[in-house]
Amino acid sequence: MRSVLLTTALFLFAFAQAQKKLTVTKDDQLKTQASTSIQANYDQYKTMAFQIWDYAEVGYKEVKSSALLQQTLKDNGFTVEAGVAGIPTAFVATYGSGSPVIAILAEFDALPGLSQTNAPEKISAGKDAGHACGHHLFGVASVASGIAIKKLIEEKKFTGTIKVFGCPAEEGGSGKVYLVRAGLFKDVDVAIHWHPGNDNGVTMTSALANMSAKFRFRGISAHAAASPERGRSALDGVEAMNNMVNMMREHIPQETRIHYVITNGGKAPNVIPDFAEVYYYVRHPKRDQVQSIFNRVVNAANGAAIGTDTKMEFEMIGGTHDLLLNRTLAEVMQKNLEKTGGVQYTAAEVDFGNKLQATFGFPAPPVANAGIVKPVKIEMDAGGGSTDVGDVSYAVPTVGLRSATWVSGTAAHSWQAVACGGTEIGTKGMMVSAKTMALTAIDLFLHPELIEKAKAEFKQQIGDYKYKALLGDRKPALNYRD
């Protein structure tokens, strides 16, 4: 009897191990299939990315960029709903049915004033904008990832729904906030995103909450020399406001970031400006603090108007939450990023990278660092940037990564970033993220317990907070780049 029991136990143990090995084999098989499928279409995705790089359309004006991504998804069997949340260039592309519902975020807006060729020296491409944050790569990688998952659902390798969200105007327009506010993430279980960068790693650093507005001063025009007493300078109002805000910097939390540009300061020195405008960003790691500091900026604007005998009004342009981090999802994504690996450069690309780094004005990490995958590390600070992905992270468990689409040491929002994005240095990094997102989605489709664990972590983080958009109930600022 003891022999029979021992034999049975050994058999059950061997069977369990075989089943475990079979499961791992299935996961790996599907991941290999997805990665191979994405890589097989590299030339198509590279062409798309370069096309959007060339379009270089700014926030809410991304008509051709959005159309290209939408058509690609339609051609691959997705049902596309365009013009969602009152935004002409926003869309939701869907394939499959039932749970789980996995969303992949796609961006595609450029930045004004950063026109650049794909050369390692500063040469304007003669345009009004450039992809200095790599969103041309962002959108294409997300579409590629979504298509790879769609094929697996189509082949009945697993069931569920894949959605690709076309998200315009991340750069200051807060596009995703309107998608969240419209309830488009209500049926989503997990959201996946990525961002171009100068290294490879899972995002475990939060983002700064952000509120932005345009402050408009109106005065009275007059001849600046012949009858200055008859005028009231709107530019004086802007400058008085800026002076007061700059003095305020000494008396706000040190983590705060405040930036502004004068978008209209008059037309001629001998004409007292009757209109002037200044565009402000206010950032802080905590959403309640950013609201408080923004209110003080508004007070400075009101005081400036009183002191210069002008009138002031302001328009909220954007408002984004900080970014909630989900450790459960980050650990899943980290394994898949390590499986995918970093970026390997040709000799010509290394030479390009060395030339580009020579323009930085500071020592840069080795170009070969693009091949390294950084370990998961939670950063206590909130980083230096803001993103409307933050609002998505308050609606649904969210996870993201960055991949090396720029030469090591390259700053975002620089001409060097635009240059890299127009070469295969950019598109190779794009493929790392496309594959990693697809592999992460596969884990979530095959292992729903991961989703439940991520949701439990999400609920604990949210607590009793009730989401409310920081930009209020305003309609999308479709002309904020005008």
Q: How can the largest sheet be summarized?
A: 7 strands, mixed
SSE pattern: HHHEEEEEHEHEEEHEEHEHHHEHHH
When the domains are counted, the total is 2
What is the gyration radius calculated from CA atoms? 25 Å
| CATH architecture assignment name of the largest domain | 3-Layer(aba) Sandwich
Low-confidence stretches: none
Tell me the strand order in the biggest sheet: 1-2-6-3-7-13-8
| Overall shape | globular
Number of H/I helices: 13
Say what the CATH topology of the largest domain is: Aminopeptidase
Determine and state the CATH class of the largest domain: Alpha Beta
Distance between the termini: 85 Å
Mean pLDDT across the residues is 95
SSE topology sketch:
Layout: H1 2-40, H2 42-55, H3 63-75, E1 79-82, E2 91-97, E3 101-107, E4 111-112, E5 129-130, H4 135-154, E6 160-167, H5 175-181, E7 190-197, E8 201-202, E9 209-218, H6 234-248, E10 257-264, E11 275-284, H7 287-308, E12 311-320, H8 327-340, H9 347-357, H10 389-393, E13 398-404, H11 415-421, H12 424-446, H13 448-462
Parallel strand pairs: 3-6, 3-7, 7-13
Antiparallel strand pairs: 1-2, 2-6, 4-5, 8-13, 9-11, 9-12, 10-11
Helix pairs in contact: 1-4, 1-12, 2-3, 2-4, 3-4, 4-12, 6-7, 8-12, 12-13
